[in-house]
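The passage that follows is intended for readers who have already worked through the single-chain material. We present the inputs for a multi-component assembly, then the predicted structure in tokenized form, and finally a short commentary. You are encouraged to pause after the input and sketch how you expect the pieces to fit together before reading on.
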Amino acid sequence: MIIDRVIRDEQFIKGRSHCESCGHELHLKDLIPLLSFIWLKGKCRYCHASIPKILPITELTVAITYASIFYWYLYKSSFSITSTLLSIDSLFFLLFILILFTLLILIFFSDLRYKLIPDIYTLLLVVNFIIFAIIRVLFNLDFAEYSVFFTPIISHVISAVSMLIFFAALFFITRKKALGEGDIYLSGALAIYLTFQLSIIMWFGAFILGSVVGVFLMVVYKKGRKYMIPFGPFLVLGFIVTLLWGNQIINWYLSLLHY
Ligand SMILES: [Zn+2]
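Having made your guess, compare it with the prediction:
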């Protein structure tokens, strides 16, 4: 709902949702994520127009992501071991992670559905990191096992600036064909969460995933070369892969160089 209303420049705190085809206001029982889609069999109760499948897929993604984050927080992180689950700094770190992943989901599906990344999401990504950085310094926050987020602030700044310069250069060299303007800002905003080395891993990840899917679409669906696939979703996926396995990938790559 947020994705659609931000694109249409509507406010999303108040106001009832309505069908995209007939404009009929939705009943409370039509607003239950996923379940409503299932028992309405993917059609509007009033005009029987098909509800876009991307909506329940988005809802499912949110559910799985939030469940995974809470699972990680309760069982996998060091917080539970040190029994500081409810300490202010671990709760703050949880909030930081939740906001980050919520924004990633909004960007992923917004770009996938509308081929557009509203600036507000990119801006909030940067703001989320800046608030984190300030609190991190002020309260001496440090969870050593999440080293990705706890490298010196300057390395995050270098990472973001170099990605911005690199993508802006690519944007102008390819004469705006390879990338959208939103992709440049998104690259910079994601890179601020990483170090320079890890940003390169993110970029390679996004590029490889994008190429594989692009070739797949060309071969299977006979899409022409002019068919534009949005790059944002691949940047988001590359970023998540980097967060989870970036340091292992770097170590693996360095070990290859030794032989
Ligand atoms: Zn309808």
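Commentary: The chain has two domains: 1-51, 52-257. The CA atoms of residues 41 and 115 lie 27 Å apart. How closely did your sketch match?
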